[in-house]
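B., you asked whether I could sanity-check this one before it goes into the benchmark set. Here's the sequence:
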Amino acid sequence: MDPFYYSTIEQPAMAEFKDRGSKFFAYSFPVTSIEAAKKTLAQLKKEHPKAVHHCLAYRIGVDGATFRVSDDGEPSGSAGRPILGQIDSKQLTNIMVVVVRYFGGTLLGVPGLINAYKTATSLALQLSPIIQKAVEIAYEINFDYHQMNEVMMIIKQYNCSVVAQSAQLFVELKVGIPKNRLEEVLNKLNDMQGVTYKTTLIV
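And here's what the prediction gave me:
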């Protein structure tokens, strides 16, 4: 994996696959937390209350270390793993795919299920535009209000993302600094009088 960039999707997509009467609706979503993944799944279950299975896989985090697979009642390894396999084949993270199945009356067997979940996921991912995002390091920057323009110029110049901002007499900015520009940004901040910064765990 590239240490400075990761691949993810920008917007949700949906694709449908049919096999011997069963319908498989694959939904891909950009997600950045386990909480977001749970909420998205709950919403889909409301939309498809009559579906027999809501199988899923997600991979979260710039290092892709957080992941989960669920067969949701299908034979073990026949749904969640094939879904994750498709996500990983495109080296994606911060993504969840849920495949909703409506049973058509004919048993597909494990090979048939693996193929159906894999194909449905693949179709949804083909419809999801893949984007490259910079790996960011979380920082908190503190400075005097009159330095706002100067600091914001640096933030914009190096494509940092502003996550939170609070301002009274002093301004506190929570930002994500692209990992590959970190040294340059900190050097610029060091050149400014009265500006302090520290790393934070939460972006």
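One thing to flag: Helices lie at 34-47, 80-89, 109-126, 148-157, 182-190. Otherwise nothing jumped out at me.
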